[in-house]
Amino acid sequence: MKPGNTPFVEFSNLAPAGSRLFAKLEWFNPTGSIKDRAAWFMFENAVANRKLVPGQPLIEATSGNTGIGLARLAVLHGHPMIICLPDTATEERKQLLRAYGADLIEVPGGPNGAIAHARELVEAGEGHMLYQYGNRWNVYAHFFGTSLEIIRDWSLADPPTHFFGAYGTGGTLTGNSRGLVRRWPELQIHSVEPFVDDPISGMRSQNDPFQPPVADLSLVTERHEVHAATATDMVACTMKAEGQFVGTSSGAVLHAAVETLNRDGGTAIALLPDAGWKYVSGPPWSA
Ligand code: PMP
Fold first, then answer.
1. Does residue 107 have its Cβ closer than 6 Å to ligand 1?
2. Residues 6 or more apart from 109 whose CB is under 8 A from it?
3. 178 CB less than 6 Å from ligand 1?
């Protein structure tokens, strides 16, 4: 099963009066997140270009979702999968990765610590790394995939005014901004980020010293920094208003979208990376 063609729905209860809010539900991908797209594009390209040879171990540094997407492909195609992930990753993510057959190496130092460790393994000849932070197929997954689906599924006569995406590796924002601004030159592109000292799983701040080489945020017109607690409040709010159980980064994206629609009005698109099931051991569901 290929990723993509996820539902595009209206969140009419969350939208402030006089504005409209549309959401693309990325947890309808094969392993439940937006990163199935990048995983599939990067994997297929590496096989086609013979960078990844049959049976060769795959190594990746990931906070979880890319690893889950890659682990599924590794099982399907007979590659051992080694995941370097921050030791702060939620238990559900670790259990899911193990269920998909991956070997886990838990590394201190957050996502940057995981990247450094994965690089060491590759240098030691332990396997091939697709390296989502520097792999242009991470961007192409959105340029040739997500953004075209959004354009195809847009049904209003007038163009959308705002697009909201979470910043992690930059794949989402780079690929979608390039694809969507080509079609709708006036579209405002909003980057949603955590504060450096208040992380949200899967997301990165532009103030972080490490900026992924693949990220090109030149089309971004506005940045929104969202506290983790604000994002989880919005998760609970979305459950009540729309009956959708979104993940924490989706909560951050929706918070920024609703705040902006309150201020500016308009029609917004929010790209929601995953659902809330992987986060039930954290706030607001558990202490
Ligand atoms: N939200 C979640 C839950 C993620 O796992 C990721 C991927 N790191 C993102 C947002 C950001 O996506 P991208 O890597 O395309 O910037």
1. no
2. 86, 116
3. no
Backbone angles phi, psi at 221, to 5 degrees: -100, -20
Cα(82) to ligand 1 centroid in Å equals 19
Which residue's CA is the nearest one to ligand 1's atom 5? 202
* Helices and strands (H and E) in the chain: how many: 9, 10
83, 92, 163, 203, best to mutate for ligand 1 pocket (most atoms within 8 Å of CB): 203
Coil, helix or strand for 23? strand
Ligand 1 centre to CA of 157 (Å) is 30
At a CB cut-off of 8 Å and minimum separation 6, what does 155 contact?
none
Taking a C-beta distance cutoff of 8 angstroms, is the pair 112, 89 a contact?
Answer: no
One digit per residue, the tens of pLDDT, for the chain of length 287 reads 899 999 999 999 999 999 999 999 999 999 999 999 999 999 999 999 999 999 999 999 986 899 999 999 999 999 999 999 989 887 888 888 999 999 999 999 988 899 999 999 999 999 999 999 999 999 999 999 999 999 999 999 999 999 999 999 999 999 999 999 999 999 999 999 999 999 998 999 999 999 999 999 999 999 999 999 999 999 999 999 999 999 999 999 999 999 999 999 999 999 999 999 988 888 778 86
Query: Token pair for residue 18?
Result: 């006089």
Phi, psi of 102 (to 5 degrees): -85, 150
Residue identifier of the C-alpha nearest atom 6 of ligand 1: 202
Q: Which two tokens stand for residue 82?
A: 């080694």
- List domains and CATH numbers for the chain: 8-28+144-279 (3.40.50.1100), 35-129 (3.40.50.1100)
